[in-house]
Amino acid sequence: MPKRILTGTIVSDKTDKTVVVKVERRVKHPLYGKIIRRSKKYHAHDEGNEFKAGETVRIEETRPISKLKTWKVIDRVDTHATPEKADVA
User: Fold this and answer.
1) Rounded distance, CA 37 to CA 84, Å?
2) CA 45 to CA 54: how far, in whole Å?
3) Other C-beta atoms within 10 Å of 77: how many?
């Protein structure tokens, strides 16, 4: 069975080797049809304490590491990448 991979934003990095990642998803309300945001927080393992709050990361499901941690951080999602601007003279 493949491991699930989610993308979210780090909301806390205060604990040692752990980050809290908030994953948002958009769902349609069953009765009214409006698109609403639902979010959930996951505790993810960060071995080197290299990720900081506010960064967008990808997390992968893994074996249980502790009581709350069953996810680990794979890498950063480069959200600030912009295409090269052509020099206009």
Assistant:
1) 33
2) 16
3) 14
Q: Taking the model in full, what pTM does it have?
A: 0.82
In which residue are the tokens 């909301």 written?
Answer: 11
Look at residue 34 and give its three-state secondary structure: coil
Q: What is the dihedral of CA 41, 45, 49, 50, to 10 degrees?
A: -80
Per the listing, tokens 């979210």 go with 8
Per residue in 7-46, pLDDT (tens digit) is 999 999 999 999 999 999 999 999 999 999 999 999 999 9
Q: From residue 4, give the alpha-carbon distance in Å to each of 7, 10, 31, 58.
A: 10, 18, 29, 10
